[in-house]
Amino acid sequence: MARRATWLWLLLIAAGASAQPIVMDGQFDDWCEAGMLHDDRGDVPTTGTLDLGRLWAAHDREHLHLLLETGRETLMQDAESPIGNRISLFLDVDGSAETGLRRDGLGVDVQIAFGEKIVTRHGPDGQTTQTTLNDVGLIMMPTHSSDTFEYQIALGGIGPYADLATLPDPPLIRFFLQDLTTGDRLPNEGSIEYLLPAPEGEEVHEPIALERMAPSDIRLLVHNVLKSNIVKNPEPFARYLRALRPDLICFQELEEWTVAQAVAFVTGVLPPGEGQQWHGAQQADVVTLSRWAPAQQAVVDENLICRFDVPTTGGAVRGLVLFNMHTPCCAFYEARQREHDRAIAAWRDILTGSPEALIAGNPDDAVILCGDFNMVGYARELYAVRDGDIFDNERFGGDFAPGRAHGSLVSAPLRHTHSPQTYTWRWDPSEFGPGKLDYVLFSDDALKLKRNFTLWTPEMPAEALAAAGLEPPDSPNASDHLVLVADFEVRE
Ligand SMILES: [Ca+2]
Ligand SMILES: [Ca+2]
Ligand SMILES: [Ca+2]
Ligand SMILES: [Ca+2]
């Protein structure tokens, strides 16, 4: 509840501030500029069911953005699970009640069923075609469960329009939302009318440079390499490794190499300096490669813990406990929760010097938990790790503050270098839209986050790609997961 109060407060005080692009990150403090269009809260009699609530809209030249409250926790891209939904968005995109499906006085040209993940187009000739969420360029955040979601819909995907310039005059979109389980409709009668005037000025998304900010920053790279694709198709991996020059690498889904083969590959691509070498550790499909030899290592479920001595800004040495995570996928909610509980309990035991601790650390060690957390389920699976809020306390022990005096761990923002996106997984033929499955969580009392980003080469301009020695399709050719990069200064 506290998190929700914070962004509502921002919404009130920031009115009148300069326009900001909507960042698709599942955080809603970027919505302060957009006016609320409708309040539909409190008209569903049964508690515990979905209740479409407040709705905001915004747009840029190529996208319509919506922010919607759902009244209870739901998984937006799921109609089957206990917290799924059957919310649909009905859009009249051509300003004509004469075209599309006649529905409540509207000519609905496009219906987007979020939970069912089906887009239905009602053509002018009465023909109906069905496509996927990806066909309309739909992005929804957060990917894990929530009671509030932000949406990005490509204007070129929902109508015969490439962008705002080709909208009808006046540029008006009419729509309503309905939860087909409870029947709750937003608005109760008629439709929302939203005008999309061309925004003033250029839309600028400040790009994030690939270079680290200081040579002494420690660079972590995280990547799920898609069924050992690095073995079969090494070129895009080699190109991004040369461009990004990490010090620590956490790979997931790399089963076809021994740790010696993985070390040999990275040594060939990133030759170590005089007297230095790459080191490796492996557990099942997770492989951790590092410029420092792990002083200790351990396994928790299928996840790998390594402890390194890393240089601080002042030239001293501090312990860094690095968890390379690949937890169960998809609808395996309980198994994933269990692994997240067990991993963060392992950090608690290391932190407190418990006799149960898997490795011996110092009380001031830094910690990073990173990797493919498969966060398509309950938000609490993530919060267990971030906040030390263990779900099964009976089995895994007490809650604690994983960031010591700072409380929770911090989740690195990891925005794309050249767009306001944060998804870390994308596979266009899938029924699922792009999502944020991968995370870097760290203790910010011991580590200062510096440059950090997610790499998605298809959206990078040609000059940026050429300067980095990358090719446009490198990201999708490498994997369905994207490369994450986070630089840290190790505090004294
Ligand atoms: Ca946002
Ligand atoms: Ca409602
Ligand atoms: Ca129509
Ligand atoms: Ca209603």
The structural class is alpha+beta
| Number of structurally distinct domains | 2
Bound ligands:
calcium ion
Q: Could you say what the CATH topology of the largest domain is called?
A: Deoxyribonuclease I, Chain A
Q: What's the rounded overall pLDDT mean?
A: 92
Count of separate DSSP helical elements: 10
Known CATH architecture of the largest domain: 4-Layer Sandwich
Which percent band covers the strand fraction?
25-35%
Summarize the structure.
Helix content is 17%, strand content 30%. By secondary structure, the chain is α+β, with helices and mostly antiparallel strands.
Would you write up a description of this structure?
With 492 residues, this protein is an alpha+beta fold. The chain has 2 domains: 183 residues, Immunoglobulin-like, CATH 2.60.40; 273 residues, Deoxyribonuclease I, Chain A (4-Layer Sandwich). 17% of the residues lie in helices and 30% in strands. It contains 10 helices and 26 strands. Strands 4, 7, 8, 9, 12, 13 and 14 form a 7-stranded antiparallel β-sheet that branches. It has a 6-stranded mixed β-sheet with strand order 17-18-16-15-26-25, with helices on one face. A 6-stranded mixed β-sheet has the order 19-20-21-22-24-23. A hairpin with a 3-residue loop joins strand 2 and strand 3. The longest helix has 19 residues. The chain is globular, with a radius of gyration of 24 Å. The N terminus is likely disordered. It binds calcium ion (CA) (4 copies).
